[in-house]
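@channel sequence for tomorrow's demo:
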Amino acid sequence: MSYTTEQLLEILDQELRANWKGERVLLSSSQRLDHPAIAKALGPEKLSKVFAIQDFRAQIHQYQQEHGVSGLVWHTCRFRERSIRFPELHPQLAAIPQDKVTLIAAKTSVLSFWRESMVGMRLWIAGTPPCPTTIEHVETLISQAEWAEIDATRTELYLSLCWGDPKECRNDWARPESGCERIIAAPSQPSGIKV
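structure tokens (generated this afternoon):
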């Protein structure tokens, strides 16, 4: 029997705590950083902690792939009097092939929730500064996205329209193969919360 997603997250959490307490040591860490000034500034203890957790996380990701353990967790978004539960990739885990299928399958319900909840609000493309947009432009972005995620504050709704590799889609360097367009629905101007 393999570990579950929840068990892997608990193991990662325990390892991270042990690592930062100094209970894990990686002796070769200074040799792994190819910049002597940074290695000296961070010091061997901090470098050891960084590389030890990276190595451990890589082992967890390999375990996930070998045993087909999902990297998805279920997130509940509440906005006004509505709520939706949908999958999203946990930032500490990797996605297995089935995870992307699950994310894609949830797109319709996430978009239904978004469309019903954003009525009467103004739309913005997230950025610095946010750029006003139209429902027609957002619908074009929706048609190009593979899956959608949603989050909210008390007054704003954040829609993420994603494609490509679930682990890399939030990184600008992954474009155009992977990416994520972020839409803000707000009563007037967006609050400036980073999404």
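heads up for whoever presents: The mean pLDDT is 85.
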